[in-house]
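User: Can you predict the 3D structure for this chain?
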Amino acid sequence: MTSELITNNPDSTASEQYVFAYTPTSGSGVVTNSLVTGASGTVPQLISSITLQEKASSMDSWHTVRTVSYTYYNGDGTDNAGAHCKRR
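Assistant: Here is the predicted structure, written as structure tokens:
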């Protein structure tokens, strides 16, 4: 995980940070397909979630405001992406 600290106002002790989580590059949860592995390509490391956290002062603990999670489909038909993609 990595994070980016954002301080909104230089006169304030309040802070926000975005915490990024990434998909693994090996083992369970890897996002890839046969075109990547067949070409001996590099498995992509994609963002799996981003969490916005904030704290009122440097003495406070971080608390989560919102988390967004991402789902990726590998495009080779083995992930049932067709069942999730519906035409409206």
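The helical segments are 34-38, 81-84. The longest strand covers residues 47-55.
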